[in-house]
Amino acid sequence: MGHLAVLRCPVRLKCNHVFCKECILHRCCFRQVKCPCCRQPIDQNQMLVLFKLSKSIGRLSIKCRNAQQGCRATFPLSNEYLHISSCPYEWQLCPHEGCGQQVLRKDAQAHDQSCSHWRQPCPMGCGTLLVRENQAQHNCYRELQQRYVAERRKQRAIAANLRRKMQRMQSRMAQIRRQINLMCESLEVGDLEIEAEAGTSARTDANAASPSSSRHRHTNSSSSRVRFI
Protein backbone atom coordinates (compact mmCIF):
# COMPACT_ATOMS: atom_id res chain seq x y z
CA MET A 1 0.00 0.00 0.00
CA GLY A 2 1.14 3.56 -0.64
CA HIS A 3 1.37 6.31 1.95
CA LEU A 4 -1.99 7.60 3.30
CA ALA A 5 -3.86 4.76 1.54
CA VAL A 6 -6.80 2.92 3.10
CA LEU A 7 -5.73 0.42 5.73
CA ARG A 8 -6.11 -3.24 4.83
CA CYS A 9 -6.29 -5.53 7.85
CA PRO A 10 -5.20 -2.84 10.37
CA VAL A 11 -2.98 -3.89 13.27
CA ARG A 12 -1.91 -2.02 16.39
CA LEU A 13 1.63 -2.23 17.73
CA LYS A 14 2.54 -2.20 21.40
CA CYS A 15 3.24 1.52 21.00
CA ASN A 16 -0.46 1.98 20.00
CA HIS A 17 0.33 3.12 16.46
CA VAL A 18 -1.87 1.55 13.76
CA PHE A 19 -0.62 0.34 10.41
CA CYS A 20 -1.70 -1.89 7.56
CA LYS A 21 -0.57 -5.41 8.47
CA GLU A 22 0.93 -6.11 5.04
CA CYS A 23 2.90 -2.86 5.05
CA ILE A 24 4.37 -3.24 8.51
CA LEU A 25 5.34 -6.87 7.92
CA HIS A 26 6.96 -5.87 4.65
CA ARG A 27 8.97 -3.27 6.59
CA CYS A 28 10.02 -5.89 9.12
CA CYS A 29 11.22 -8.18 6.34
CA PHE A 30 13.72 -5.49 5.32
CA ARG A 31 15.11 -5.39 8.89
CA GLN A 32 13.53 -2.03 9.67
CA VAL A 33 12.08 -3.44 12.87
CA LYS A 34 11.17 -0.08 14.44
CA CYS A 35 7.90 1.79 14.42
CA PRO A 36 7.95 4.44 11.64
CA CYS A 37 6.36 6.97 14.00
CA CYS A 38 8.12 6.59 17.35
CA ARG A 39 11.05 4.34 16.44
CA GLN A 40 10.25 1.84 19.15
CA PRO A 41 11.14 -1.80 18.43
CA ILE A 42 8.42 -3.85 16.74
CA ASP A 43 7.44 -7.18 18.26
CA GLN A 44 5.42 -9.20 15.76
CA ASN A 45 4.04 -11.39 18.55
CA GLN A 46 2.40 -8.30 20.14
CA MET A 47 0.61 -7.08 17.00
CA LEU A 48 -3.16 -6.84 17.57
CA VAL A 49 -5.56 -7.13 14.63
CA LEU A 50 -8.32 -4.45 14.86
CA PHE A 51 -11.38 -6.28 13.56
CA LYS A 52 -13.87 -3.53 14.39
CA LEU A 53 -11.78 -0.92 12.61
CA SER A 54 -11.43 -3.28 9.64
CA LYS A 55 -15.23 -3.59 9.40
CA SER A 56 -15.64 0.17 9.61
CA ILE A 57 -13.11 0.66 6.83
CA GLY A 58 -14.88 -2.04 4.76
CA ARG A 59 -18.09 0.05 4.84
CA LEU A 60 -16.38 3.07 3.25
CA SER A 61 -17.76 3.96 -0.19
CA ILE A 62 -15.17 4.01 -2.96
CA LYS A 63 -15.06 4.47 -6.72
CA CYS A 64 -14.07 1.73 -9.15
CA ARG A 65 -10.42 1.66 -10.05
CA ASN A 66 -11.51 1.63 -13.70
CA ALA A 67 -13.06 5.10 -13.47
CA GLN A 68 -10.64 6.40 -16.11
CA GLN A 69 -11.93 3.75 -18.54
CA GLY A 70 -15.50 4.95 -17.95
CA CYS A 71 -16.80 3.00 -14.94
CA ARG A 72 -18.91 5.22 -12.66
CA ALA A 73 -19.79 2.62 -10.07
CA THR A 74 -19.37 3.26 -6.34
CA PHE A 75 -19.57 0.52 -3.73
CA PRO A 76 -18.34 -0.42 -0.24
CA LEU A 77 -14.66 -1.18 -0.03
CA SER A 78 -15.43 -4.72 1.11
CA ASN A 79 -17.19 -5.35 -2.24
CA GLU A 80 -14.28 -4.19 -4.39
CA TYR A 81 -13.15 -7.66 -5.42
CA LEU A 82 -16.71 -8.70 -6.28
CA HIS A 83 -17.18 -5.64 -8.48
CA ILE A 84 -13.79 -5.95 -10.21
CA SER A 85 -14.52 -9.57 -11.12
CA SER A 86 -17.47 -8.42 -13.27
CA CYS A 87 -16.65 -4.79 -14.09
CA PRO A 88 -17.19 -4.21 -17.84
CA TYR A 89 -14.32 -1.66 -17.88
CA GLU A 90 -11.69 -4.06 -16.50
CA TRP A 91 -8.78 -4.73 -18.85
CA GLN A 92 -8.48 -8.34 -20.01
CA LEU A 93 -5.92 -10.20 -22.05
CA CYS A 94 -7.23 -11.89 -25.19
CA PRO A 95 -7.41 -15.62 -24.37
CA HIS A 96 -6.38 -16.77 -27.84
CA GLU A 97 -2.79 -17.95 -28.11
CA GLY A 98 -0.57 -15.62 -30.07
CA CYS A 99 -2.80 -12.54 -29.84
CA GLY A 100 -1.65 -10.78 -26.64
CA GLN A 101 -4.00 -7.81 -27.10
CA GLN A 102 -5.66 -6.23 -24.05
CA VAL A 103 -9.34 -5.30 -24.37
CA LEU A 104 -12.04 -4.13 -22.01
CA ARG A 105 -14.33 -6.84 -20.70
CA LYS A 106 -17.31 -5.20 -22.42
CA ASP A 107 -15.45 -5.33 -25.77
CA ALA A 108 -14.13 -8.88 -25.37
CA GLN A 109 -16.97 -10.48 -27.33
CA ALA A 110 -16.59 -8.11 -30.27
CA HIS A 111 -12.83 -8.67 -30.28
CA ASP A 112 -13.38 -12.44 -30.14
CA GLN A 113 -15.46 -12.23 -33.33
CA SER A 114 -12.68 -10.49 -35.23
CA CYS A 115 -9.51 -11.89 -33.62
CA SER A 116 -7.32 -13.53 -36.26
CA HIS A 117 -5.87 -15.89 -33.65
CA TRP A 118 -9.27 -17.38 -32.79
CA ARG A 119 -9.19 -21.15 -32.37
CA GLN A 120 -11.92 -23.45 -31.11
CA PRO A 121 -12.59 -27.21 -31.27
CA CYS A 122 -15.79 -28.17 -33.04
CA PRO A 123 -18.62 -27.98 -30.45
CA MET A 124 -20.21 -31.10 -31.97
CA GLY A 125 -17.24 -33.19 -30.91
CA CYS A 126 -15.88 -34.22 -34.31
CA GLY A 127 -12.36 -33.15 -33.25
CA THR A 128 -11.81 -30.53 -35.96
CA LEU A 129 -10.00 -27.37 -34.85
CA LEU A 130 -12.00 -24.46 -36.21
CA VAL A 131 -10.36 -21.21 -37.39
CA ARG A 132 -11.82 -18.18 -39.08
CA GLU A 133 -10.99 -19.55 -42.52
CA ASN A 134 -12.87 -22.85 -42.17
CA GLN A 135 -15.55 -21.99 -39.60
CA ALA A 136 -18.20 -21.02 -42.17
CA GLN A 137 -17.52 -24.03 -44.42
CA HIS A 138 -17.32 -26.58 -41.61
CA ASN A 139 -20.16 -29.11 -41.69
CA CYS A 140 -19.82 -31.47 -38.77
CA TYR A 141 -22.20 -34.09 -40.18
CA ARG A 142 -20.47 -34.02 -43.55
CA GLU A 143 -17.06 -34.27 -41.93
CA LEU A 144 -18.15 -37.26 -39.85
CA GLN A 145 -19.73 -38.91 -42.89
CA GLN A 146 -16.58 -38.45 -44.94
CA ARG A 147 -14.48 -39.91 -42.14
CA TYR A 148 -16.87 -42.85 -41.86
CA VAL A 149 -16.73 -43.53 -45.60
CA ALA A 150 -12.92 -43.27 -45.62
CA GLU A 151 -12.70 -45.63 -42.65
CA ARG A 152 -15.03 -48.15 -44.34
CA ARG A 153 -12.92 -48.05 -47.51
CA LYS A 154 -9.80 -48.64 -45.47
CA GLN A 155 -11.38 -51.59 -43.68
CA ARG A 156 -12.61 -53.09 -46.99
CA ALA A 157 -9.12 -52.78 -48.47
CA ILE A 158 -7.63 -54.53 -45.43
CA ALA A 159 -10.25 -57.30 -45.64
CA ALA A 160 -9.63 -57.80 -49.37
CA ASN A 161 -5.89 -57.98 -48.80
CA LEU A 162 -6.41 -60.60 -46.09
CA ARG A 163 -8.66 -62.65 -48.39
CA ARG A 164 -6.02 -62.59 -51.13
CA LYS A 165 -3.36 -63.72 -48.68
CA MET A 166 -5.63 -66.51 -47.43
CA GLN A 167 -6.32 -67.68 -50.98
CA ARG A 168 -2.60 -67.72 -51.75
CA MET A 169 -1.97 -69.73 -48.60
CA GLN A 170 -4.73 -72.21 -49.46
CA SER A 171 -3.37 -72.59 -53.00
CA ARG A 172 0.12 -73.15 -51.64
CA MET A 173 -1.15 -75.74 -49.15
CA ALA A 174 -3.04 -77.58 -51.92
CA GLN A 175 0.13 -77.64 -54.02
CA ILE A 176 2.12 -79.02 -51.09
CA ARG A 177 -0.51 -81.74 -50.53
CA ARG A 178 -0.33 -82.74 -54.19
CA GLN A 179 3.45 -82.97 -53.98
CA ILE A 180 3.21 -85.09 -50.84
CA ASN A 181 0.71 -87.44 -52.53
CA LEU A 182 2.97 -87.78 -55.55
CA MET A 183 5.92 -88.58 -53.31
CA CYS A 184 3.87 -91.21 -51.44
CA GLU A 185 2.73 -92.82 -54.71
CA SER A 186 6.30 -92.82 -55.99
CA LEU A 187 7.49 -94.53 -52.81
CA GLU A 188 4.75 -97.19 -53.08
CA VAL A 189 5.64 -97.94 -56.72
CA GLY A 190 9.31 -98.24 -55.75
CA ASP A 191 8.45 -100.71 -52.97
CA LEU A 192 6.38 -102.83 -55.37
CA GLU A 193 9.21 -102.88 -57.90
CA ILE A 194 11.71 -103.92 -55.21
CA GLU A 195 9.41 -106.72 -54.05
CA ALA A 196 8.90 -107.90 -57.64
CA GLU A 197 12.64 -107.92 -58.31
CA ALA A 198 13.25 -109.85 -55.09
CA GLY A 199 10.66 -112.51 -56.11
CA THR A 200 12.14 -112.92 -59.59
CA SER A 201 15.62 -113.33 -58.16
CA ALA A 202 14.44 -116.01 -55.74
CA ARG A 203 12.78 -118.03 -58.50
CA THR A 204 15.88 -117.76 -60.65
CA ASP A 205 18.07 -119.09 -57.84
CA ALA A 206 15.66 -121.95 -57.25
CA ASN A 207 15.66 -122.93 -60.91
CA ALA A 208 19.43 -122.81 -61.03
CA ALA A 209 19.75 -125.17 -58.06
CA SER A 210 17.29 -127.86 -59.39
CA PRO A 211 19.53 -129.54 -62.24
CA SER A 212 22.49 -130.14 -59.95
CA SER A 213 20.25 -132.00 -57.50
CA SER A 214 18.95 -134.27 -60.29
CA ARG A 215 22.46 -135.05 -61.44
CA HIS A 216 23.46 -135.97 -57.89
CA ARG A 217 20.57 -138.36 -57.51
CA HIS A 218 21.39 -140.04 -60.87
CA THR A 219 25.05 -140.53 -59.88
CA ASN A 220 24.04 -142.25 -56.65
CA SER A 221 21.75 -144.66 -58.49
CA SER A 222 24.54 -145.67 -60.89
CA SER A 223 26.91 -146.38 -58.08
CA SER A 224 24.40 -148.64 -56.44
CA ARG A 225 23.92 -150.66 -59.58
CA VAL A 226 27.68 -151.10 -60.01
CA ARG A 227 28.06 -152.43 -56.49
CA PHE A 228 25.17 -154.77 -57.00
CA ILE A 229 26.77 -156.36 -60.05
TrEMBL record:
<keyword id="KW-0175">Coiled coil</keyword>
<dbReference type="InterPro" id="IPR017907">
    <property type="entry name" value="Znf_RING_CS"/>
</dbReference>
<dbReference type="InterPro" id="IPR001293">
    <property type="entry name" value="Znf_TRAF"/>
</dbReference>
<dbReference type="Pfam" id="PF02176">
    <property type="entry name" value="zf-TRAF"/>
</dbReference>
<feature type="domain" description="TRAF-type">
    <location>
        <begin position="83"/>
        <end position="126"/>
    </location>
</feature>
<feature type="coiled-coil region">
    <location>
        <begin position="152"/>
        <end position="179"/>
    </location>
</feature>
<feature type="zinc finger region" description="TRAF-type">
    <location>
        <begin position="83"/>
        <end position="126"/>
    </location>
</feature>
<keyword id="KW-0862">Zinc</keyword>
<dbReference type="InterPro" id="IPR013083">
    <property type="entry name" value="Znf_RING/FYVE/PHD"/>
</dbReference>
<keyword id="KW-0479">Metal-binding</keyword>
<feature type="region of interest" description="Disordered">
    <location>
        <begin position="198"/>
        <end position="229"/>
    </location>
</feature>
<dbReference type="GO" id="GO:0008270">
    <property type="term" value="F:zinc ion binding"/>
</dbReference>
<feature type="compositionally biased region" description="Low complexity">
    <location>
        <begin position="220"/>
        <end position="229"/>
    </location>
</feature>
<protein>
    <submittedName>
        <fullName>Ring finger protein 151</fullName>
    </submittedName>
</protein>
<keyword id="KW-0863">Zinc-finger</keyword>
